[in-house]
Amino acid sequence: MTLLITIIPSILILLYFFNSDRFREPKSTIAIVFVLGVLICWPGGIINTFMYKNFGAEDGGKDLTHSFLGPAWVEEVLKFLVLYFIVLRRKEFNEPMDGIVYGVTVSLGLATYENYDYVFRLAETWNIEPMEIAKLRSYTAVPMHGINGCIMGFYFGMYAFTANKKYLVLSLLMPYLIHGFYNFLDSPFHYLILMITVAYAMKLHGSLEKLQLMKRKEGEKLKI
Question: What is the pTM of this model?
């Protein structure tokens, strides 16, 4: 049961975005990008450890410096690099909505492995029940990664099909800031950041859904 709660939230979020795409991406490519999200956890872990040792709070708690110089930039930059150097060069990446689908996919690859590590390794180190961590992260950290992937992917997709570098900057800057403030703030602001981010991401996603619907209708008219 603990394993299911650890991995199912990522799967459900990924399925939502995959199925909402009216021109679905190849499952093989989705699998590749998801695995890449898992693999970037290794360099991410090394860099995060270095940053924590050098910029972490002296008492082991949170501080503004660690929140923005720790996982926030490391993880978002690594996700971004997968999009920029791998996804952007694939022929399947042929419309803005694809940016969201692949952004969510790489983010949830990272989130799934990270979640597994928290539940089955760090929980024992911290003397916390694994199930408690699995439940907590199922409605906090995992959705945060997925939604950040949506925001990154939206702006990345806009950059890919407009060549406007403003979108390229926003594709990295927005998730970085959200992730940093998410790490820094405690509840209830912690959850407030998450709710605002979800609403913002759904608005961006909805705007591309409308474009896809218009595109499909135009295609149907041409067939007639």
Answer: 0.93
